Amino acid sequence: MKIFQDFNDCSGIRNAVVTTGSFDGVHIGHRVILQRLRKLADEIGGETVLITFDPHPRKVLYPETSGKELYLINSKQEKIELLHKAGLDNLIIVNFTLDFSKITSVEFVKNILLNKLHARKIVIGFNHHFGHNREGDYEELRKLGLEYNFDVEEIPEQDIQNEVVSSTKIRQALLEGNIQKANAYLNHHYMIIGEMLPSNPLLKEIGFPSFSIQIEEENKLIPPNGVYAVTVLDNEFSYRGMCFIKKRGNSSKDALVEFFLLDMPATLSGKTATVLFQKQIREEKTFNSPEEMQHQLMIDKNQVDELIF
Question: Does the 2-164 domain belong in CATH 2.60.40.60?
Answer without folding.
Answer: no
